[in-house]
Amino acid sequence: MTNKSEKLIEVVNVTAGYGNNIVLRNVSLTVYSNDFIGIIGPNGGGKTTLIKLLIGQLKPFSGEVIFYTKVNGSLIGYLPQISHIDKSFPISVHEVVLSGLLEKKGLFGGYSRDQKETAFNLMKQVGIEHLKDKNIGQLSGGQLQRTLLCRALVAEPQVLILDEPNTYVDSSFEGELYEMLRKLNDRMAIVMVSHDLGTITSYVKTIACVNSTLFYHPSNQITNEQLAAYNCPIQLIAHGPVPHTVLLDHNLDSKQNNQQ
Ligand SMILES: Nc1ncnc2c1ncn2[C@@H]1O[C@H](COP(=O)(O)OP(=O)(O)OP(=O)(O)O)[C@@H](O)[C@H]1O
Ligand SMILES: [Mg+2]
């Protein structure tokens, strides 16, 4: 089991965006090895932008993102938001899963037998092994999400980053997905964007709310005033003997925002 004090990624006072447009201001967040962080916030609030910073795909305008890469293994496994995927790319399910190993490909471009076996076992675990030779353009949304989950996991990352992994999956797989994540969290940090935190209240350990700035409450409890201030009209997450969700009053929300 890894130690809480082990830092994996650190976002330090970052301002970031696209072109001249600032999307995130003065954001700081540290991902530790046993974290399970849920990221919530309104559409366009900057959740995916924060994820792009965490995976090193976007460089900040100011501030810095520090990666504490280990000698062995890969640091990050990433499942992108499905609406951002180009499905017209002619590539099979199996190839997509294996592409998660690109960094670890052998000198002559091949995958080892162990790597292929890991990929196949993951596909079995999420029930897509029968689709292995299908082109990704022919998949349903849920099948594609399962495929991308396998790709994110195949290199056994230290941080698993998921951008809305449950948008298309059916409710039966959704339950399995969260159970799987809970087990994976014993050996890797997880950062997950979701609009549906109500159903995962017993899975995430902490919640970050992103709406241009970031509010991070380093525990699994958060007050509705705090969420409202960040225009996160989602759920009040509370853990306890009976996890429960309280829906915020949207009027309260807009009133508070107008006052800002
Ligand atoms: N590649 C890009 N170029 C220019 N602007 C972008 C780009 N990607 C995102 N944006 C803008 O940045 C803002 C934040 O977008 P982002 O995708 O981070 O939001 P989000 O919180 O993930 O939203 P959603 O819940 O809809 O996924 C939006 O206003 C969006 O239009
Ligand atoms: Mg997004």
Q: Short summary of the structure?
A:
The chain is of the alpha/beta class and 260 residues long. The protein is 27% helix and 26% strand. The strands form 3 sheets. Strands 5-6-7-3-8-9 form a 6-stranded mixed β-sheet. A 3-stranded antiparallel β-sheet has the order 2-1-4, with helices on one face. A two-stranded antiparallel ribbon has the order 10-11.
Indicate the CATH topology of the largest domain.
Rossmann fold
Oligomer: single chain
Strand content: 25-35%
| Rg calculated over all Cα atoms | 19 Å
pLDDT below 50 for ≥5 consecutive residues: which ranges?
237-260
Mean pLDDT: 82
Counted beta strands: 11
Order of helices and strands: EEEHEEHHHEHEEEHEEH
Largest sheet: 6 strands, mixed
- Straight-line N-to-C gap: 43 Å
Named once each, the bound ligands are: adenosine-5'-triphosphate, magnesium ion
Shape: globular
Which secondary-structure class do the elements indicate?
Answer: alpha/beta
What is the CATH class name of the largest domain? Alpha Beta
CATH architecture of the largest domain: 3-Layer(aba) Sandwich
What is the domain total for the residues? 2
Strand order of the largest sheet: 5-6-7-3-8-9
CATH superfamily of the largest domain: P-loop containing nucleotide triphosphate hydrolases
Question: Share of helix among residues?
Answer: 25-40%
Number of helices: 7
